[in-house]
Amino acid sequence: MDGFINLDKPIGPTSFKMVDKARKLTGQKKVGHTGTLDPGASGVLPLCVGRATKLAVFLVDSNKTYRAEITFGITTDTQDRYGRILRTKKAEMDRKRLEEMLRQFRGPIMQLPPMYSAVRQGGKKLYELAREGLEVERKSRKIEVYRLDLADYLPPDRAVIEVECSKGTYIRTLCNDIGEKLGCGAIMSSLTRLSVGDFSLDSAVTLKELEEAAKDGNWAKYLLPIDYPLKHMPKVFIRDKYVKLALNGNNLYDHNLLTNNKEFNHLQQLRLYYRSTFLGIYSYHSDTQPSYFRANRLLADGVEVKQYS
């Protein structure tokens, strides 16, 4: 079986443990996830099943939305409530001051990856160095905060924010940086991921629901189609007699498809179908004459179609 499970990860287990649990419940060997969610966080964790694991790389760039609680007046080495307290200071603020401060963190900003992160440096992950008691120099990276709203203010020292952001954004670092700007420090005291691309918490299945369905052998009712998270990519359909070309990974040209290449931009990614069967992802290249479509990720294994001459 191939597709995605939109899982609502509970607080506690790692993302890897959730993948392992899903393998056992579904009996499927190929299961993966599209982006780690920390053990202390809950919310949307899309799981790839079967051939959908080949598409995980295309979901990494998806925008994500989070709801986070910030506790002001505390600074820890992990920037969340699980770390060692480095300092405390009385938080003095009000809703108006906090809302004004949030404006500074909207749009493109530079963010310094935290030491407790999976970013690699010198062949090691930063969190491995941090556990050895080391702190190394890191380079700030450009991220983008598309939306940052104050969802609730809980005086005297807590607030809830909602954040829509680009890949590579660390929400606990965002919370820490807001606290530093306010002069009192802050930690991320809770985190829920509300969405990853087209996967939202509103339609996610809980682990308990997946376990109950698996007992009845009916877990697949929660399996979303393999092309579910690719809705933003235009569809193109191949002509019957050229299906073999696509299955062999050959470049395709305008006459191979039931489409007009003038509709697409250079390097735009597209979903390729044979009738109703999804064959994979192609990219359009208009920098040559004639222009052509190149296979980025094929799902041809296991696809049964007639062979055409």
Structural summary, described in words:
By secondary structure, this protein is an alpha+beta fold. It folds into 3 domains: 3-62 and 198-228, Pseudouridine synthase (2-Layer Sandwich); 64-196, Pseudouridine synthase, CATH 3.30.2350.10; 233-298, Archaeosine Trna-guanine Transglycosylase, Chain: A, domain 4 (Roll). The protein contains 6 helices and 19 strands. It has helices spanning 15-26, 95-102, 126-131, 171-182, 207-215, 243-247, and strands at residues 3-9, 31-33, 42-49, 64-72, 74-76, 85-88, 107-111, 120-121, 124-125, 141-154, 158-165, 186-196, 199-200, 205-206, 223-224, 235-237, 269-274, 277-285, 292-298. Strands 1, 2, 3, 4, 7, 10, 11, 12, 13, 14 and 15 form an 11-stranded mixed beta sheet that branches. It has a 4-stranded mixed beta sheet with strand order 16-17-18-19. A two-stranded antiparallel ribbon has the order 5-6. The chain is globular. The mean pLDDT is 89.
